[in-house]
Design goal:
The protein is mainly beta and 114 residues long. Helix content is 0%, strand content 50%. The protein has a 6-stranded mixed β-sheet, with no helix packed on it. It has a 4-stranded antiparallel β-sheet with strand order 1-3-8-7, with no helix packed on it.
Length: 114
């Protein structure tokens, strides 16, 4: 199983980004998937979850109302749309199963400048 995240970048406060994750996993359509992030000097934390069928979504309080997680089970892709970005959203963002498995991707860096 491999995860390949992309779409990060440097944006100003209040900006928008859409992150993508390509998942190499034969069981992808049966797996709940999630985004996680690790900010500078902080432990990795949960950001958002989407159920295998896309019907249930959960968000961390820190991003609720500002992020939307989605998936495409035909393309084995997971997405995270982020708007109204804040400096505290600066982190490396990763996708993984929920609960996560060993073997993380390289992540994609999001930097929000004020």
């Amino acid at each position: 199983v491999q995860f390949s995240e992309s779409g990060g970048g440097m944006v100003q406060v209040g900006g928008f980004l859409k992150l993508s994750c390509a998942v190499s996993d034969l069981s992808f359509t049966y797996r709940d998937m999630a985004w996680f992030r690790q900010g500078p000097g902080k432990p990795r934390e949960f950001v958002a979850l989407i159920a295998a069928d896309g019907g249930r979504r959960q968000y961390a309080d820190a991003v609720k109302g500002r992020c939307t997680i989605s998936r495409d089970n035909y393309k084995n892709m997971v997405y995270l749309e982020m708007n109204s970005l804040k400096p505290e959203d600066t982190a490396i963002y990763y996708c993984n199963r929920r609960p996560p498995m060993d073997g993380w991707g390289h992540g994609t860096q999001v930097t929000v400048s004020s």
